[in-house]
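Q: Structure for this?
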Amino acid sequence: MYINAMNWSQVEEHIKKDDRCIFPLGCIEQHAHLSLGTDMILSEKIAMDAAEPLGIPVFPAMPYGLTAGFVDFPGTISLRIRTYIAFIEDILDGLYHSGFRRILIVNGHGGNAPAGVVISEWMNRNRDASVKMYDWWRAPKTMAKVLEIDSRASHASWMENFPWTRLEGVVQPQHVKDCVDLNGLARVDAGRKRERLGDGCCHGLYERPDTDMLAIWEIAVEETRAQLENDWH
Amino acid sequence: MYINAMNWSQVEEHIKKDDRCIFPLGCIEQHAHLSLGTDMILSEKIAMDAAEPLGIPVFPAMPYGLTAGFVDFPGTISLRIRTYIAFIEDILDGLYHSGFRRILIVNGHGGNAPAGVVISEWMNRNRDASVKMYDWWRAPKTMAKVLEIDSRASHASWMENFPWTRLEGVVQPQHVKDCVDLNGLARVDAGRKRERLGDGCCHGLYERPDTDMLAIWEIAVEETRAQLENDWH
Amino acid sequence: MYINAMNWSQVEEHIKKDDRCIFPLGCIEQHAHLSLGTDMILSEKIAMDAAEPLGIPVFPAMPYGLTAGFVDFPGTISLRIRTYIAFIEDILDGLYHSGFRRILIVNGHGGNAPAGVVISEWMNRNRDASVKMYDWWRAPKTMAKVLEIDSRASHASWMENFPWTRLEGVVQPQHVKDCVDLNGLARVDAGRKRERLGDGCCHGLYERPDTDMLAIWEIAVEETRAQLENDWH
Amino acid sequence: MYINAMNWSQVEEHIKKDDRCIFPLGCIEQHAHLSLGTDMILSEKIAMDAAEPLGIPVFPAMPYGLTAGFVDFPGTISLRIRTYIAFIEDILDGLYHSGFRRILIVNGHGGNAPAGVVISEWMNRNRDASVKMYDWWRAPKTMAKVLEIDSRASHASWMENFPWTRLEGVVQPQHVKDCVDLNGLARVDAGRKRERLGDGCCHGLYERPDTDMLAIWEIAVEETRAQLENDWH
Amino acid sequence: MYINAMNWSQVEEHIKKDDRCIFPLGCIEQHAHLSLGTDMILSEKIAMDAAEPLGIPVFPAMPYGLTAGFVDFPGTISLRIRTYIAFIEDILDGLYHSGFRRILIVNGHGGNAPAGVVISEWMNRNRDASVKMYDWWRAPKTMAKVLEIDSRASHASWMENFPWTRLEGVVQPQHVKDCVDLNGLARVDAGRKRERLGDGCCHGLYERPDTDMLAIWEIAVEETRAQLENDWH
Amino acid sequence: MYINAMNWSQVEEHIKKDDRCIFPLGCIEQHAHLSLGTDMILSEKIAMDAAEPLGIPVFPAMPYGLTAGFVDFPGTISLRIRTYIAFIEDILDGLYHSGFRRILIVNGHGGNAPAGVVISEWMNRNRDASVKMYDWWRAPKTMAKVLEIDSRASHASWMENFPWTRLEGVVQPQHVKDCVDLNGLARVDAGRKRERLGDGCCHGLYERPDTDMLAIWEIAVEETRAQLENDWH
């Protein structure tokens, strides 16, 4: 249940019975021809869809994340890592203070990975909590489905092109983009990264039929929901 | 235009013609019987409604803000001030790096006021930019309309009860809440604050007719839009 | 009692009987033709005068505060907000460790307002303490007296021109300064602020008879003393 | 060439001809029956062996890294992530100020991965530099060799048991350890992690013949050296 | 000239002719039977007396410093070192922005020594400035005079007992205090330090005739003045 | 015993009987014609030699320290003081969490002195621990021996020229370097410092017979060992 659809006394009542919640992590960064908010949109929606039948509160996605490499693409906003770790600490402290003890962080952006280190540090100070850092798009079953459909998949390619991340009136390229040299991106600044990336997509087709996309989504929702239901502590 | 409805090359094109953008600040905190997301919902919506005819990009609202005083109401999440100032710095750096030079920060939560200090420091390092910290709900015309309707108005009272912040199935109290002692709240911790605040509302009725609310909204949208159109630099 | 007139064992004895103390906040910043130390001088003196008959310890004023907007006026020193919040935290920790539980922060500079957020956070970690952030010059009775005398009053105008803030040999302008556009100051850097502010005064006459000033001071001392005597916890 | 075998004027001369250097990252953490310094020993030695014929300066390994998850195993020292990112920034600033522009960071510990984010941020401020974050043990050829020998390999298993990381007088277990549940480790604090990990090894045999180990080492040295020789900028 | 006796335009005029200023560092900490403000009082007064005939601006002393070791003596306030270094950076930035290029930091408290490291870092970023960290009481001639009078001298002993640091009505002990074991203090927390220190004095008599004290002061003023006059850059 | 020669369970066993350990602090900085790693080499070796007969664990030296003044000599790496204090805090927290309660910090570099302030703060939070900051080269007996041999001794002079810090193939100058003006170094940036320092040595001969050096070393080892054996808490 979206936290914005609750008031504080409803949350208080809920926690008495169930100490689970979800916190989605997004990023506002270039996704080639797709929405700048792709990672935020997907992490929040997968969280909502997974939580819906369970009634677990879903906090608003953190829109902004770590994406220093893409800041030369306008519209991309990167937090400094020192800011981000402070933010993650505060969120965990706040959820804990509210009474939550089992927290699923649904992450929509690979670059946010240092949050996992913060979680590890934080749990040492809050030893009765359990926190999962969950990259929904590369969970085993979800990624297996992606690869089954088309292994040429990457950042900003078809695998992120859902009905809710594509933009009205924007026509996607029809070719298969060659795989960019990922090591060549990692060792240089955002300027050279932009030059080497062109439109921002890393590899593959830019769109596939919605039957493919919805099949992936269905698996991803189930796999995320299983994280809520099983294997805490 | 919501940034999530744009891709990076659209932003790049836009900035060539117009270097304005909007960044809304919210807060997830107790609002008595209303949504925990009230401040986030209102700041993002007022920004969207004001920007719409102008085509100015609106970045996703920062959901989380400064609300240490309310953390004993479950569901309330407060960032530490040190985290928040780092966050505001990063956002301004990111918007500037993208090319924006006139930035309207539409703030929906009084507690976020230290952002104004950060802006002041930041502009000294970026002297060709102009940044407005704009508390939409207490802009002169908007507040005058509120007071004209009913001066017994406060945090979590009728003046924040819009069709988009009230919750389905939640019945609002029908009495006028006496004004709490605000100084008595300020000098104590969150525990004593909660005791003294009861349901979380500070003063006044809990709801008023939508004709009142929409009249306020209309004025607020116009007043916010005027901020976008006039008096930069 | 000024802390510099005490030694540690006297403080230890005092706290056994009374856990109150005062900490004044100042700022070294342009005050047009008045002393750069105006805010420090006034906050420390009002604290001393208010505390005197009560024997409550007054710690030395923190001379430096938050004034990023005025740094292009030479002699103005602004701390970064991140430094300032760390400083306020340390002072509160130190006073608490000494044994003080009721702390009156007498603030002489509007720009120091983020200290209030730090206090709010700090009290959540020290729930048996009570801390008041008190802007002496805009307390209700004091401000009422100012407005009664002359409502054209502002930063660096007559209302800050006391016998202890004016400078020997400096002649004050004799005209009424028109009110500067405060919104126009807030949205720009310190350079444009200085251009728009001229001599640094915001509005009003530069001096008034000492009978006016001493009448204000008397009320302010009483109103500050009442803060020490009443309404803790 | 080890930097400890050079003086400052030799470094100055060297940089005039070659702006490459190596900085190894280690960690002091439990490695089951192996040395607590395993990651430091291996990253520094692989760096030295790779650099030797090229005469490239190798700075002393940073012994300490990010290992919050293992702190309940005595002897393990974990830096906070906020400290670590500051450290990495300082080292890069220092190497750059000395004149180095091509920097190979040879990392010996998976948990140090956030250094990669710091590098990405840092290169945006130093756009004429190129920095590689290189996890020597999972470089493609090295890892292929490991898996070819025995795919049951993990933290503190045989794959880290080199002549220079094993301890005199310590007898290694002779069985194959079952694979621990890595997700089950990630979601809990260091106390539960220790309970679930037993001796600290994650999976596999504890030792294999030195012919295997030296074959891996030889490939790893060559693969690391290739990083020094090729594909900068 | 005390900065509180100047306004901004006077500072602006002054800097056009002379880019020197003084910034005194104090500390509020136990000084046995003497004022808690001893270090602040002495550093500000020595600065004022030295600067007086030269007309060099003296900024208000920073009252608070680093004294973690004495916090178990009530009235002692210690800043964290991380706060203090940020504070020193900000002050230097502020003085530099005002136009000062030769800055004498007159330090009254040995524990503030890390300021010297901050100065060293800061000068690398501001290479046209010259900053002296000057411990007035242990400058060669001043300390020689102290030792000539009575070599049994220490923190809170007679050597800090000036007419302006002793307290009305407080009778000083008349014996010579044996020297405490300074290494024994350094290796333990503030609680054990207090136990071992008794009244807080480290060694020696508690008072000497004012002829001695004024002789020391005269030398110290001259020696401090020489720092202002000679050997910049 | 070098910690790299132990595994975690050996440390655990050791702490049950003896809660002492050693942590050496070094610095990578210019030492004229000697190794850039001189301070790291000496602090780690003196720690190892002192601890050897006692079986006390020696953690790997922190190679990097505070040396802002020498950064214009290539190969010198200086951490920012803010980073360094965070590092020292983390190390102490880590050693404490492992179970150590008596910690000898063997420091090889004068510039690292702010670590002492961090220790003082840290012990207030960990009041059952005892931590010594020990500058081995200026301990009383060691320094007396140095001065007995040749009082013209300084940074990078003969007194740091041991068989394990001198470099193969580097011929040392044969003259006595005049004493540089140390105050003249302290008040300027790293650029002017380099100009004034020439080769980096401050005063004295560059080498002396090994009989002298080994006599110093023998005394230093014994004096350091006595720190381990005596006077804790």
